[in-house]
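Researcher: Next sequence.
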Amino acid sequence: MSLKYLQKHLLDALSMSKNGTRETDIRYIITVPAIWGIAAKQFMKEAAIEAGIVGNRVKLALEPEAAAVCCEALGHTLAGQKFMVVDIGGGTADISIHEKQSDGSLKNIHAPSGGPWGGIYVDANFIAFMTELFGTIAINALQRKDMYDYFDMIRDFEVKKRKFGFDSQTDITFRIPMVLKEILYEQHQSLSDRLESLKYGKRVFTRGRDKIGVDSSIMHSWFSDPVSKTVNHISSVLKEDQMKDVGLIILVGGFAESPYVQQRIKEELHGKQVIVPGEAGLAVLKGAVMFGHKPDIISSRVMDYTYGISVWGNYDEKIHPAERKVYQDGKWKVKHFFEVFVRINQEMQVDSKVTNFTYPTSEYSVIKIYRTRDRDPAFTNDPGCELLGKIRIENDKGIPLKEQLNKTTFMFGDTELHIFCDNVMNGKVETLTLDFTK
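Model: Next structure:
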């Protein structure tokens, strides 16, 4: 419904401003956090199709990569440099690391990473504080019966949040919706008495009839946890051997406009150049539009998993446990052997293909697709291996199985993983169709 509303809003705006624009002329780019898994990305694409957007005109873009495309407009500043993009939005902090190539394209040199450390977690700390002051019943009543006043309270906090700096030491004043005081009164409590019963002492106090003052140390505590997690993660990535020559950090996203966030990152990552582009909150949006016009601007990506298929492998007594061996077709074999197509942290060019061949053993071949965080997996039923799905392909009944070949192809580098399987002899082709949302 959200995507459907946005599409209608767009089409209404276009109809008023420009004649002759058809919906079929539009390509839709949907940005998603880099840390989302395949299931979440698939869900977004299916949601777009459910909203009435034709699937072949929908493309997903990873948010920090879109931001990097926007920042590429910095031109000479990035030429030949390795740089980190930290996209801190409402929900997540996403990190990607790139190197600008001589042809202007961007090479991804580290698998995207991050976590749930965006600005909404500061908001959640504020709501938890207000709930502690007024009680769960009062806050629930405000949300349920006086939504306008509730959002007014949130907007007031948002204004204060956007101005609050790491070195701020002045008290902050918040307006209190009258309904909260009324509920306290119904419970035979005054706000002053309530404050005295809590642990804040003089750090929280009343100001007039409808305001409270809050010491800056409390506001600091609301920011501290999510921002600390972001800073610590950035530090851990930069400590990796191949990341030590990354000297530039570009902050984008709505939460990156916060003075507190900017000052904390500059303070704790001294020695690194930190850039916050103008309108940092729009960098992902602008970059997504640029990416839509020139999707090959991202020239390569680093894989976040090891991918492969399950096959019968030749038994090797030096590396395989004896209990794994099975005698088949005159040879000792091992079942569930992890045939690796690409390894975690391996760089893959956009739209590059990796192909492997297997011999069919029955009328139908079932190709099972796996992934793992292990760089050198041995078997697909080892801990940490995840079955992504299966491709079932029909083999040729008129040709001996030993004379047939199944060709499995993985196409990497795009924001989606495409898998094709075809029988070389009969030309039958199947593609991987998975319902990742279940």
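Model: The two ends are 20 Å apart (CA to CA). The first strand starts at residue 28 and ends at 32.
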